[in-house]
Design goal:
- By secondary structure, this protein is α/β, with parallel strands linked by helices.
- Helices cover 33% and strands 28% of the residues.
- The protein contains 10 helices and 15 strands.
- The chain has helices spanning 11-17, 34-43, 54-59, 72-84, 99-112, 126-135, 166-169, 173-189, 287-299, 309-325, and strands spanning 2-7, 24-30, 49-50, 63-68, 88-92, 116-119, 143-151, 192-200, 211-218, 223-229, 236-243, 246-251, 260-266, 275-281, 307-308.
- β1, α1 (11-17) and β2 (24-30) form a beta-alpha-beta unit.
- It starts with a strand and ends in an 11-residue tail after the last helix.
Length: 336
C-alpha cells in the first residue's frame, strides 16, 4: 500500500484524506492547528499518526506520497522539502505564489526521479473529461473561442481572511478560481499567452483583486475570454468551447454551483439550429478521488490526465503576466 501524508488538514486536506483510492492509505497528518490534525485522523479511523511538524509527517515509515494543502505561501517550500526526502507530491493549486518557486521544485524532482502533480481537480469532473474528448474530434474545425465564468460571493469577513493578504495568498481571485479557468483552457485547447488583463477590487476592500477579466491568445488559434469573480452572488461555473463546426458548454459543478451538465451543439451544413445533446451528473463530486487515483497511477508509471508541475508553471506564468500588466490591479500605482 502507498502511504500518504496530508500536510494541512483544513477543507481541502480533509477532502483528500477522505478520498483515498484503492492501493493508498492515510498514515500521517499534520496541521499548524493540532486539533484539526487530530480531528482528521479520527475521521479516517484513527490509524494515521498525528505529527507535530510537516517534516515529521513526511518521515513517517511507509509514506510514499505527500499531499500538501496549506496556504499558498507554504506550498512550494513544503513541496521542496518532500521532494528532498524522495517523496512523491501532490500540491494543491495554485502550487506556489510565483512560477519560479515551482521551477526549483521541478529541477529537484527530476534529479530524484519523483512525481509532482498539482491539484487542478476540475480536470476530473466528468463533464470536463467528456468535453476534452469532444473538442479533440478531428471534424470540429478551427477553434473560434473559449468563454468561461467562475465565481462565488465570499462571506462576511472575507476581506480579513488569508486569501485577502497577498503576502500569504500571492494574489486574489485570479489565483483562487481564475487559475482553474486558465488550466482548463490549456487542458482543452492547448497552450496560451496573455493578451489582456483587467483586475479590480469592485466590492471587497482588500489589496487583492475580487474580479479578474483575462483575455488569452490560444497559440494554435482562437481566443479565450475568462472572468473569475468573488462578487458572483449566486455561485456560477460556465465554460464554453466553440469551434467552426459546433460548441460544447459545461455548466455547474454540483452542490451550490448547480447540477453538472454538458451540452453538445453540432452545426448542420445548412446552419440554423444545431443538433443538440445534453448529459447530466447529479451525484456528488468525485473529482478528488479520481485525481488521487490518477496520481497513484502516475507513480506506478501509467499515463494520466492530471496537471503536472509544468502545467502549474504555465498557468502561474500567465497570472504573473496579468499582475504585471493590469493597470487597475489593487495596489498598482496610479496611471500617469
Amino acid at each position: 500500500m502507498l502511504g500518504v501524508a496530508v500536510i494541512g488538514c483544513g477543507l481541502i486536506g480533509t477532502k483528500r484524506a477522505l478520498a483515498m483510492p484503492p492501493g493508498a492509505g492515510l498514515v500521517a497528518v499534520h496541521d499548524v492547528r493540532p486539533e484539526r490534525a487530530r480531528e482528521l485522523a479520527a475521521r479516517c479511523g484513527g490509524q494515521a499518526r498525528v505529527c507535530e511538524s510537516a517534516a515529521e509527517a513526511m518521515a513517517v515509515d511507509g509514506v510514499g506520497l505527500v499531499v500538501i494543502a496549506t496556504v499558498h505561501r507554504d506550498l512550494a517550500p513544503l513541496a521542496a522539502a518532500a521532494v528532498d526526502q524522495a517523496r512523491h507530491v501532490l500540491i494543491e493549486k495554485p502550487g506556489a505564489c510565483r512560477p519560479d518557486e515551482l521551477e526549483a521544485v521541478r529541477r529537484s524532482a527530476e534529479q530524484r526521479g519523483v512525481i509532482v502533480r498539482v491539484g487542478f481537480n476540475h480536470r476530473f469532473h466528468p463533464a470536463l473529461m467528456q468535453a476534452r474528448d469532444v473538442v479533440g474530434e478531428p471534424d470540429r474545425g478551427p477553434l473560434l473561442y473559449v468563454r468561461a465564468r467562475y465565481g462565488h460571493g465570499g462571506r462576511p469577513g472575507y476581506d480579513r481572511e488569508w486569501r485577502a493578504d497577498p503576502a500569504i495568498s500571492g494574489g486574489g481571485e485570479l489565483m483562487d478560481q481564475g487559475i482553474h479557468l486558465i488550466d482548463l483552457t490549456r487542458y482543452l485547447v492547448g497552450d496560451v499567452d496573455l493578451a489582456f488583463a483587467e483586475l479590480t477590487s469592485a466590492f471587497w476592500s482588500m489589496p487583492v483583486e475580487d474580479n479578474a477579466f483575462v483575455c488569452l491568445r490560444v497559440r494554435g488559434g482562437g481566443t479565450a475570454w475568462l472572468h473569475a469573480s468573488w462578487t458572483e452572488w449566486k455561485n456560477l461555473f460556465s465554460f464554453e468551447v466553440a469551434h467552426s463546426a459546433g460548441k460544447v458548454e459545461i455548466s455547474g459543478l454540483g452542490g451550490s454551483y448547480g447540477v453538472e451538465r454538458l451540452t453538445r451543439y453540432d452545426m448542420r451544413p445548412q446552419m440554423g439550429p444545431p443538433d443538440t445533446r445534453s448529459w447530466e451528473w447529479p451525484r456528488g463530486d468525485d473529482s478528488w478521488a479520481a485525481e488521487l487515483d490518477d496520481v497513484v497511477g502516475a507513480i506506478d508509471g501509467r499515463p494520466g490526465r492530471g496537471a503536472t508541475i509544468n502545467d502549474a508553471i504555465a498557468a502561474l506564468t500567465v497570472i504573473q503576466a496579468a499582475y504585471r500588466s493590469s493597470p487597475t490591479r489593487p495596489g498598482a500605482p496610479a496611471a500617469t
